[in-house]
Every structure is written in structure tokens, then in C-alpha cells.
Amino acid sequence: MTITTLSSRELNQDVTRAKKAAKRGPVFITDRGKPAHVLLSFEDYQRLTRQRRNIADALAMPGVADIGVDPPRVTIGAQPADLS
Questions:
Q1: For the whole prediction, is pTM greater than 0.85?
Q2: What average pLDDT is seen over the chain?
Q3: What are 28's strand-pairing partners?
Q4: Conformational region of residue 29, where left means phi above 0, alpha means psi within -120 to 50, and beta covers everything else
Q5: Most buried among 16, 30, 59, 83, by the most CB within 10 A?
Q6: What CATH number does the domain containing 53 carry?
């Protein structure tokens, strides 16, 4: 899977390029350098909007491996119960 980034101007100048790129993976479309839209193939869209999705399907979606996640570490400590 390939992620492609195009500016709005590039999209307007070459829609065919964007459509071909969407067959290989999502196309991020930027406005003034910031992501504004995503172009997907219809198959990828259907996969995203499917109602009955399990965790395995969600993790197998294209692009998930490219998402950086750095959750904060949480320490859970035990406290004595007050039984009075």
C-alpha cells in the first residue's frame, strides 16, 4: 500500500494521477500544506464503512501500520481497602 500526498492544485491539474494513486492506497489532499481530504478507492471506502467490523479487520486495514501511536504509560497502584 502506498500513501500519496497531493496539493489541491496538483489534484485539479491531474485528476487521473490521483485516481490511479487511489488504487494503490489513500491519497491525502492538502490545502495550504495541511491535510484536508482523503481520496480512497471505492473498495477501501466500503471496507471502512462496513458495519460489522472486528478488531482483526480494523488492524488489517491499509495504512494502519503507517500510523504512529505512542500512548502514555499508565501505572496502576493498589491501595488498601477501608473496611471500617
A1: no
A2: 86
A3: 5, 38
A4: beta
A5: 30
A6: 3.40.1620.10
Q: DSSP letter at 51?
A: S
Asked if residues 63 and 4 have their Cβ atoms less than 8 Å apart, the reply is: no
Show the cell assigned to 47.
471496507
pLDDT of residue 73: 86
- Over range 33-55, report the average pLDDT: 84
Phi, psi of 38 (to 5 degrees): -130, 130
Specify if 16 maps to a domain.
yes
Phi/psi at 26 (nearest 5 deg)? Answer: -65, 150
Q: Give the pLDDT mean for 30-51.
A: 88
User: Helices marked H in 1-84 — which ranges?
Assistant: 8-13, 15-24, 42-49, 55-59
Number of compact structural domains in the chain: 1
The grid cell for 42 is 471505492
Residue 8 sits in which domain range? 4-66
